[in-house]
Amino acid sequence: MKLKLNTADFQNMVAKATKGSSGNTNLYITQLMAIELQNNTLVLTTTDGSNYLYIKREKVSGDDFYAVVPVEKFSKLISKLTCDEVTLELHESSKKELDTLIIHGNGKYVIELPYDEDGELVEFPDPMSDVDSSTYEATQVKNAVIQMMLNTAKPSLMIGTKAPQYTGYYVGKSIVATDTYRICSIDVPTLDTPMILPAEFVDLLDVITDEEIEVNYNSEAILMHTPEITVFGRPVEGIENYKIDAISAVVDQPYPSSCTVEKSALLQLLDRLSLFVDTYDKNSVYLTFTKSGLEVSNKRDKGSELIPYVESTDFEDFTCCIDINMFKSQVKAYQSDNIEILYGQESRIKFVDGNIRQILALAKDDRFESDEEGEDE
User: Fold this and answer.
1) Second CATH level (architecture) for the domain 253-371
2) If one looks up domain 2-125 in CATH, what number appears?
3) Number of neighbours of residue 244 by Cβ within 10 angstroms
4) Whose CA, among 39, 143, 274, 345, lies 20 to 30 Å from 45?
5) Which CATH superfamily is domain 128-251 in?
6) How do residues 165-186 score in pLDDT, each as one tens digit?
7) Would you say 122 and 47 are in contact if contact means Cβ atoms under 8 Å apart?
């Protein structure tokens, strides 16, 4: 059994498929790739143990074919080929230890096929066979929305297992990501029945370049696909613990004042000022909204800069304290050249960029605590 196809096309397929493999040394299947040709349709499959990535190409010449190979060795070999065409040939033997995949390219290369604990050739699991597809809801999502999730919402996801429901994206009437200290809300209706998408699942969607993505989902699984790429995963459990109503109320809360500053100028300022922020500063900087612009300084006043407003609305004097790393990550995630900042609330500030809203919790402002303690004494 063998198949043949253009080397550059196959290299592109393998490079994409490799992104679905996590290479977890504790989970062998994540180190493997399935190669299947059926009715002249070639499918490469990889997994991180929870999510599955399928890369498909039609009109591939060859016999029906199935093999599971080590991702790392196979992908590295394919990426280094410089020949015009590559042929994969499956060599079956009565002695199982001799079952191999032979790659004909610039030369001849032999890869031994892996076996499971029962001494049988490894077969890749098919998670979609365990889900009743007749219960799927169907919709579409634009790739631009996925890119907003990856570029803007991802920095707001919780890391760790403290509250698992916040490690993924809440997707429903809007898209929300939060670690409880910061919130990113994208006002784009996506799923009629909300669910929490794992961060790893959304990361895999980055291999898709089509403008429109088909979506099929139910309470157990979600499938996003185009003619050549399919990503299958399962929602994060605990959506009943996701406090979406309280989060939405925070996102919608009005602010008394707003200003707009240039993104690049603010990032450059934060890069310079971060050199003077240390343990004594508790990793925080102070924001002071003045009539002439936004002043940013560190606790000991060893660094201070003021950048002018591009625009200011309903100005009021206001000062607050914020974690510099969290602030910088959200500024970087901002898509526009100018940043609109809403301020005046005691516990948070807000960024607005079209249909994207970001909330950052403020840190404790203890600049005057030592003075007040002295007066009490």
Assistant:
1) Box (3.70)
2) 3.10.150.10
3) 15
4) 143
5) DNA Polymerase III, subunit A, domain 2 (3.10.150.10)
6) 999 999 999 999 999 999 999 9
7) no
